[in-house]
Write a structure and sequence with these properties.
mainly alpha, Glutamyl-tRNA Synthetase, domain 2, three-stranded antiparallel β-sheet, nucleotide-binding
Length: 504
Amino acid sequence: MTKNVRVRFAPSPTGPLHIGGVRTALFNYLFAKKHNGTFILRVEDTDQNRYVEGAEQYIIDALNWCGIPADESPVNPGKYGPYRQSERKTLYKAYADELIASGNAYYAFDTSETLDFHRKDHEAKGKTFIYNWHNRLKLSNSLSLSAEEVKAKIDAGEDYVIRFKSPQDETLHLTDIIRGDIKIDTNILDDKVLFKSDGMPTYHLANIVDDHLMEISHVIRGEEWLPSLALHYQLYKAFGWEAPEFAHLPLILKPTGKGKLSKRDGDKLGFPVFPLEWTDPKTGDVSRGYKEDGYFPEAMINFLAFLGWNPGTEQEIFNLDELIAAFDLNKVNKSGARFDPDKTKWFNHHYMQEQNDSELAEVFKGKHSELADIDVNYISMVIGLIKERATFVSDFWDLSHFFFTAPTSYDEKASKKAFKEGTKEILSEVISIVNNIEDFSVESLQTEIKSWITSNEIGFGKVMMPLRLALVGALQGPDVFDIMYMIGKSETVRRVENVIEILK
């Protein structure tokens, strides 16, 4: 790629960042890094009515947690700032005026009441009201009014908007990296508002001006912006600017595969749709986050990458560097990507195995008061034995509690299966063997107990099941000999003696 790659993620700070937005940011990041380019965060906060306190910082924190921080942003500005659209608002009026001067835009003085009347009138006739070439000369704007009338209205302080003048009887030939060639009949396009009566630009104008001034080379955004592509291409043409290349990512669909994934789907099916936990500043409502639910950022990035993109191989596990090397917009699918909550857990289980046991031990210890006085190195060793069965750190206690506290009860169904006639005598012999082992190690335990079982021609289940039940309280956990070694000789004997006492 010869051009200098500069891409941007441009969210609105109207609430928490949905994982669909994180996926868009990720694809922009991967594309930028693949081509030694720049990944920019631009906060599009011109809609002050929908602005939510704390949302901008949430977006920044989310990208940082995911490991895909912006190279340029409001908190890390480059030479193309400001990076908040609200701080750029003085720029846009001049560009709107430029479009009016070139005949590509016009003043429109129609009141909201007038426009509402036309909409309802069209609905009553089974039609849809579109403000464009077929009716604009019948409405109140600078195309239907004389220059004097227009000046008088502006001088009198009448509210107006500036609309783009869509061409008539033309066919636009557009190109999208993911979707290929697109043809648009301009007769079906409406004359979008570019500048509002409150003196603020609409998304369309501000977006195009900012992308041009920030020298954005590729616009990689969600499918929901595809209907705006025609207008954006026309704006670039009207300004005489070179348009960036466009790529519209597929929707992330509900687990059923029908409809766009929403927060409601997560609430209903029990999974988060936001990267970090979010507390609504107005209502106090708390929305779950992947971080707080125990997902690793590497897992989240890996599963998000596969929502709409496929490397074309059987490989599914990719670290960030591998994703950067493999990523290709031409391998992004057009069709929506179904979100699979079970697959996200599968990824997290994989990344659990790659985590450092000592670091996991610190996290685990911090979550359970029962572990406050236990050596973190011991906890780390326990985690090494049980984490292959874990998907989240929150799974650890159920998988390992018997390493820290002796069982106080025994699974009823397992007890009936394990405790038979002669079990008390068998366990008493196990105690004798354990007490006679000087080198108390996993290997010694395994050798001595298995040799005794074999030489006495006892079924392994008759020994190992009640022994496990004595140590754990259930027929679960890692290798019995690992458990015995970890809890030590005296605790092993004590637990087996407890069971023998119960069997009496």
